[in-house]
């Protein structure tokens, strides 16, 4: 019983996500989990996952946030539209230019935050105004569309089925391979723990986790197989999540971010260049904002002056709902993904049920407040 309580405590938001999904599935008469709606859910929340991963790293440094990400999305989208649609520049050259501009924006903001030590809130608030203004200048207040088909296919297509049939077999194979890789990694992790003399995870717990994960993945794969297969954007999201999960958990620079968030003064005294760490997190945030912009313009098939509005709120909300601490030093990429899916299920579920938009905002605000309050209360009890 104690083990069950411990597992539930560690996976509170995952349990909450399952409960909310079940509630909205019942409330919508099962429409929430229709294959088409699941595919839409993935597409609609792709930018949230990308931005939230970057935002997590900012928050980890000590509760810092980036308010400029929505405006950066608008600006990079405007530049992409100008290059690809108006000037007919090669799409790969345009993508590289957009990513480089995103990095330069991060360098600008990171310099003021990390080396001049102007509070991140002020610098990114200024950035929110500056980059939105520049986006309006680039677009001249107009919307650029449509984008060429070869660009849209990079983000909006599905992995083609190598078999022919009424259901996409390739999607099921991708799901099965994902399950095998996950189980293999868990087994390797347990073997390494034994070799190093650590207490390994119990076989029963490992088996339970593997079964649950495999069931969820195969249900998702089957659902997508009944629609049009695995979206390419899902592969991009998986790549982002896996790369940043590895970076934060297995690399020295990634652990530096957690160390700085835990206690910056102690991290500095131990030899960590905290200025460099802080600088990197904001350059990385701007880079991921550029990636999100490229995804968004492909999804909406346009670059608009109003693009990216409130995107920073979605990213911040996903981080805190996913278990990131408001004080920094605590949070996982996997938790952020759960937070983003949670927000997506809330949005889609309430939209399908016809809930008023204003009420949706109230609900999301209350959920965010509850997540942060849970974090603060839990810390105060430990003290």
From TrEMBL:
Membrane topology classification: Multi-pass membrane protein
Main location: membrane
GO cellular component, one term: plasma membrane
Membrane-spanning parts: 12-34, 40-60, 67-85, 91-113, 120-142, 162-185, 206-224, 230-247, 277-300, 320-346
UniProt entry tagged with the keyword Metal-binding: no
Subcellular location: Cell membrane
PANTHER family: ABC TRANSPORTER PERMEASE PROTEIN YPHD-RELATED-RELATED, XYLOSE TRANSPORT SYSTEM PERMEASE PROTEIN XYLH
Name this polypeptide is given: Xylose transport system permease protein XylH
Keyword terms, alphabetized: Cell inner membrane, Cell membrane, Membrane, Sugar transport, Transmembrane, Transmembrane helix, Transport
InterPro entries (alphabetical): ABC_transp_permease
One MF annotation (Gene Ontology) recorded for this entry: transmembrane transporter activity
Function: Part of the binding-protein-dependent transport system for D-xylose. Probably responsible for the translocation of the substrate across the membrane.
